[in-house]
Design brief:
single chain, 285 residues, alpha+beta, seven-stranded mixed β-sheet, four-stranded antiparallel β-sheet, 28% helix, 26% strand
Length: 285
């Protein structure tokens, strides 16, 4: 989910990042359950029921339900819907592209991630859109390392998309800091120049979430005041992971394997559970 963030950057201790990992695993496992559940004929509300049961069974709380009045546990956005789709009576059909955004809270700490699922047989063009969007997210995650800057993340995402050719990068909605609130500073655009923006320090956590379109990236919001759609009616894809910047590299808190498999491919340094000496309290800058 993309929204306005609270001010100030929140830096976490290793213990706090470990709590975020617990929330991240709830989100990651829920999304894997949802991926396996999507079939033609079900409604987007059916998916919301699956997510609500999964998060509840894990002893966690949905991040989205009630957030600024949002009425559901997850966002489900189909085809030309980019983000923030409200689950309801819409029936999912063979050939649809379905983006699912999920957040959960464990002991006051948030995890946030999204996937895009091809339902049944989709066109090669749509399959490629999904592939490029996911690859751009992993490129951004690989750049989330101590000493890099926010512009390096945006550049990694944007250049991956542009190298693939023919796609639009949505600029009106961006990633965000995350921790004791779902949306915090800094904003994390999916575009930028290397060597610009906030310098990344150990303990910052970010939600990196490219939203990529088949054509122009212009968007509008529907009458429900939530659902963002492409202006030209073209399809879009959305991927997101929560990542912690650690002394040993990016740790993808919402990936079941912590990012081990994909970060190697994207040039990053995958990490496991932090081994730094324990600290207490919360540091802010």
């Amino acid at each position: 989910m993309v929204f306005r963030r609270k001010s100030r950057v929140e830096y976490k201790t290793p213990e706090q990042i470990s709590l975020m990992r617990e929330a991240g695993l709830v989100v990651g496992r829920t999304l894997e359950t949802l991926r396996a559940s999507v079939v033609p004929g079900m409604t987007t509300a059916d998916l919301d029921d699956v997510a609500a049961s999964s998060i509840s069974a894990a002893g966690a709380t949905p991040s989205f339900l009630g957030y600024h009045g949002f009425p559901a546990t997850i966002c489900v956005s189909v085809n030309d819907e980019v983000v923030h789709g409200i689950p309801g009576s819409r029936v999912i059909c063979d050939g649809d592209v379905v983006s699912i955004d999920c957040g959960a809270i464990v002991e006051g700490w948030h995890g946030d991630a999204a996937i895009t699922v091809a339902v049944g047989e989709v066109t090669p063009e749509l399959a490629r859109l999904i592939e490029v969007t996911e690859a751009s997210m992993w490129a951004g995650l690989a750049a989330a390392r101590v000493g890099n800057q926010l512009g390096d993340i945006g550049w990694a995402v944007e250049s991956t998309v542009h190298d693939a050719g023919g796609y639009g990068v949505v600029e009106d909605y961006v990633g965000h800091g995350i921790g004791t609130a779902m949306h915090q500073e800094p904003q994390v655009p999916n575009y930028g120049r290397p060597g610009t923006g906030l310098r990344l320090r150990e303990g910052v956590a970010l939600a990196i979430e490219p939203m990529i379109t088949m054509g122009p990236a212009d968007t509008t919001v529907l009458a429900d005041d939530w659902t963002v759609v492409t202006l030209d009616g073209g399809c879009a894809a959305h991927f997101e992971h929560t990542v912690a910047v650690t002394s040993r590299g990016p740790w993808v808190l919402t990936a079941i394997d912590g990012g081990l498999a994909r970060l190697g491919d994207a040039g990053g340094t995958p990490v496991g559970e932090p081994r730094e000496p324990s600290q207490s309290g919360e540091r802010r800058a």
